[in-house]
Design brief:
Number of helices: 11
Largest sheet: 4 strands, mixed
Strand content: 5-15%
Radius of gyration: 19 Å
Length: 248
């Protein structure tokens, strides 16, 4: 239970705005109009519309664009959907489908108290220097390379059920891509732009949540690259070298 003031404050959070943006995108695509039993805060509505506009899902008049029509076909958060739609442009749609699937299931890492150190060491073996998105991609590729073996997952402190769910979600997303004629392509792994292209596709969906480190302030201080009203400081940070990483 929350007080009315607390509830209104909660409605205005970036997370709530993203959820509402998903609802708006779906309703706009199927042309459904209805009255809310409990209307959202005006700020939440504005943030949701602003998000969809920045993503190119709606135009300045609030009408669905061609990109928005494609995004609405994916049962995903609008930013994940934009990431999917943009991925063929960067030659990494196969990888982005895997990343989206891994982000759509419960945490794949396990950390039992009695083996916390071993679990941390196992997780570090999958870690990628450029952030958690690519770490999740490494986990998925390693699991597939080991034949989706449950014993291997257990030995590496991975949740087999979550991995199977991710694999199922990936199959569904791949079928949607095929139906929508979204090209399933990959950059050769040996190519030096393999991971760069994946980061570019991720940023295509989450560019509004990117911050650049501010050298003049504290080590963790970040300077927003776009309006701070639509930022969520727990996502991405881009360094001077252009590397995009996820903040905890």
């Amino acid at each position: 239970m929350r007080t009315h003031l607390t509830f209104k404050s909660h409605q205005a959070t970036p997370c709530c705005a993203r959820c509402f943006a998903t609802l708006l995108l779906t309703c706009t695509s199927i042309q459904v109009h209805f009255d809310f039993m409990d209307p959202p805060a005006p700020e939440t509505l504005m943030r949701a519309l602003e998000l969809l506009n920045y993503l190119g899902a709606i135009d300045d008049d609030g009408n669905l664009t061609e990109v928005g029509t494609t995004m609405a076909e994916f049962p995903l958060d609008p930013q994940l959907a934009k990431m999917m739609v943009a991925s063929p442009e960067f030659g990494c749609s196969n990888e982005i489908v895997s990343v989206a699937a891994m982000l759509s299931v419960p945490n794949v890492f396990t950390r039992p108290k009695e083996a916390a150190k071993a679990a941390d060491e196992a997780k570090a073996r999958f870690a990628h220097i450029d952030g958690d998105h690519l770490t999740l991609l490494n986990v998925y590729h390693a699991w597939k390379a080991n034949g989706e073996d449950g014993s291997w997952a257990y030995d590496n402190f991975l949740n087999q059920r979550s991995l199977k769910s991710a694999d199922s979600v990936r199959g569904q997303l791949a079928r949607i891509c095929q139906r929508l004629n979204v090209r399933m392509v990959s950059t050769p792994f040996e190519d030096k732009s393999y991971y760069v292209n994946i980061r570019k596709a991720i940023t295509a969906g989450y560019f509004m949540q990117v911050r650049r480190p501010n050298a003049r302030s504290a080590p963790l201080a970040c300077q927003p690259l776009v309006s701070s009203r639509v930022l969520h400081a727990s996502w991405l940070v881009v360094g001077d070298n252009g590397v995009v990483q996820m903040l905890k």
